[in-house]
Amino acid sequence: MGFYRKPRGKDAAFRRVLPVVVVTIFAVLFVIFLLNTTTSDPHREIWSSNRVGEVELVKYNLSSFNVKPRLPKQNKLSIALQKKNQLPPRNLDLFPSLAKDHTIIVLYVHNRPQYLQVVVQSLSKVEGIGETLLIVSHDGYFEGMNKIIESIRFCQVKQIFAPYSPHLFQDSFPGSSAGDCKDKDDPLLKNCQGNADQYGNHRSPKIISLKHHWWWMMNTVWDSLEESRHHSGHILFIEEDHFIFPNAYRSIQLLTALKPKKCPNCYAANLAPSDVTSKGEQWDAMIAEKMSNVGYAFNRTVWRKIHSKARDFCFFDDYNWDITMWATIFPSFGGPVYSLRGPRRSAAHFGKCGLHQGQGERNACIDNGEVNVELDDIDKVVNIKPDWKVHVIRRQEGYKAGFKGWGGWGDDRDRQLCLDFSYMYHYRDNT
Ligand SMILES: *[C@@H]1O[C@H](CO)[C@@H](O)[C@H](O)[C@H]1NC(C)=O
Ligand SMILES: *[C@@H]1O[C@H](CO)[C@@H](O)[C@H](O)[C@H]1NC(C)=O
């Protein structure tokens, strides 16, 4: 078609045909649009479409934020910890400022000090870590965990504590309370409180704490904490059983910088493959696949999109945050949700040696406070080349739309608390 050629020296003629050209372009786009929407192959992916960009269009349903959160009554510890969350980061004397384009790191933990010790040790060797802020989010209050975090001297550190963690409440919700149904109790026969999940089981505070913590932490980091609520870049999330390689920080910075150009359909960047037992393909290519729960980084636009699905997140009957995301949130985005990563992992999930939970000892495990991760020299520096192509893994095993959930999340009180976490920083009391 003529308009692809530059009409050099024929400006007047070009101006005359311009309306025709514009109309033609719109007609062509419209036909493409019709073809896209009328083809019914669900596995077809339209790479040219700017689906990820659509997240910009997400608007809040403001009326839903006018529901006043009904958070549980706090005890002394819960109130004290919430106050602690306002303290400034530590190590400001050693690291008075953050680098311009830093990626905040959030480490979320429960109570495995031997694991945390290993993770912190690995973080201390990460190139560039001194440029950023490390936020440690605690589910429960444990001295052994605090001691390890307080010993950190390699970057700014801010500790936050989930004030509604079930671990802080001994005899009331979100902990267990006297009148609660247990296991498969019938509320009418036993005259107890609770709603069973889809498999007939009642809530178990220890188990539901993980999903609550993750959701509280996401809402708090993105929408409340002074140190991160204005952050315009990516935030990297890691857990207390993720060994972090020395090249992890530089790699995630490179991947997030390459993401818009190399993988427009990628919502996130990852430090490790979605198969936690894999060390990566070791190809000369970057890989786009479903988001892994080990070392994932995304930005505020993506958070807004996730947050707009709060109701789906909070009502899905599965106590795992990651399965909830894969089975209900990501599929609702209306297109493939990929994450960009390198061909070698920069973080390794580890478990206790000798326990066979689908992850062999050949991969990574901890024994007497030591992790047996092999670190080759190539893993100590950035090993991703910006000119590599992106290999896309389109059809992947694992949890996806249609999975009904493992249960454990059937109690109305948990669903309401989760919703309250979504609204608590947005509700404006106009009375
Ligand atoms: C907005 O939220 C309110 C309250 O949750 C609901 O009643 C209403 O239908 C929602 N509106 C839209 C357009 O989704
Ligand atoms: C955040 O990431 C998404 C997905 O990669 C991208 O479409 C969007 O433009 C980014 N937003 C900002 C503010 O950089």
Automatic annotation (TrEMBL):
Places the protein is found: Golgi apparatus membrane
Protein family according to the UniProt entry: Belongs to the glycosyltransferase 16 (GT16) protein family.
Keyword Ion transport set for record: no
Keywords associated with the record: Disulfide bond, Glycoprotein, Glycosyltransferase, Golgi apparatus, Manganese, Membrane, Metal-binding, Signal-anchor, Transferase, Transmembrane, Transmembrane helix
Binding sites annotated in the UniProt record for Mn(2+): 241, 349
PANTHER family: ALPHA-1,6-MANNOSYL-GLYCOPROTEIN 2-BETA-N-ACETYLGLUCOSAMINYLTRANSFERASE (PTHR12871:SF0), BETA-1,2-N-ACETYLGLUCOSAMINYLTRANSFERASE II (PTHR12871)
Membrane topology, as annotated: Single-pass type II membrane protein
MF (Gene Ontology): alpha-1,6-mannosylglycoprotein 2-beta-N-acetylglucosaminyltransferase activity; metal ion binding
InterPro entries noted in UniProt: GlcNAc_II, Nucleotide-diphossugar_trans
Name of this protein: Alpha-1,6-mannosyl-glycoprotein 2-beta-N-acetylglucosaminyltransferase
Residues noted as binding substrate in the record, renumbered to the chain: 139
First-listed, main subcellular location of the protein, grouped into a coarse class: Golgi
